[in-house]
Amino acid sequence: MKAVRLTRVGEPLESQEIPIPAVGERDVLVRVKAAGICHSDVHYRAGSSPVGPLPQTLGHEVAGIVEEAGADVRDLQVGDRVCLHYLLTCGECHFCRSDHEQFCLEGKMLGKHTDGGYAEYIAVPARNAVRLPDEVSFEHGAIMMCSSSTSFHALRKARLSAGETVAVFGAGGLGMSAVQLAQIMGARAVYAVDINTGKLALAENLGAVPVDASQGDPVIELRRLTGGRGVDVALEVIGLKQTMEQAVGSLAVLGRAVLAGLCDRLFEIDSYHDLLGREAEVIGCSDHTLWELEVLVEYARQGKLDLSHNVTGTVPLEAAAINDVMDSLENLSGGVRTVIRP
Ligand SMILES: [Zn+2]
Ligand SMILES: [Zn+2]
Questions:
Q1: Is the pLDDT of residue 147 over 90?
Q2: Which of 50, 139, 169, 260 has its CA 20 to 30 A from that of 177?
Q3: What was the pLDDT predicted at 335?
């Protein structure tokens, strides 16, 4: 079969012919119909995030059709539409058994530690396959496996409850899902903070109150919009020192800031005014769980989670086209998400 693979860090991906993967007794073989090109993949190619062993087929946002099921697979059949949870876990360790499988002691990630979805076929444990209803496209099923699920996990980590206010710092792919999911979870008001007027207009269409951070300090504006209180939940999905500080600074008494944007920089908190004096919390967020994916797929089936603005292009399973998309992501000039359609 054809696969587009990383053979050496720092070099373009290559098209290769490799065998169709073998299917174990509890695995399914999935014919890939859509695979999202994620910013993480750009980091793997560049060597700024660890990946391997090489050569490796990238692609952790995958949806397709079950082509073959192992002898012990009970609840999936050939022809079923599925999308794939990218965390391969043992199912038995302390973390797996306590619904925190993203910390599995033997955890691996599709398209990073094992061959992923930039290929015609992929084999995964059957329990990693989430049923994809006919109402949800393969493209949307694929991208839900990464950015939307991080947003959902972050809002759950924030313990968002009905009637609370939410500020989302960053109106890109994660932010667009977060704006919708916060409303589904019952937020009274959702504020979208960004400096890009096009993204702010899109967030407003999805029900958010836009806050243009290029026009003034968003912390002051969020206090003004909330009658001086601040927001109950602030979600940072960009990964910048400045926006992490703004997220914490905009919290109300008992507010929770969740940091989901990747960043290796230090940031500053005024411990008395920002945290102690308000009993505020700063919470980290990493990945998501299989259960959350099943809920997301159902929200998409019901039409509550609209991802039509998130897929901005498709490319064939060809190394040159995929490398071009990754180049533009690297230069921050790409659309929200491009999906490979093998
Ligand atoms: Zn991703
Ligand atoms: Zn485990």
A1: no
A2: 50
A3: 62
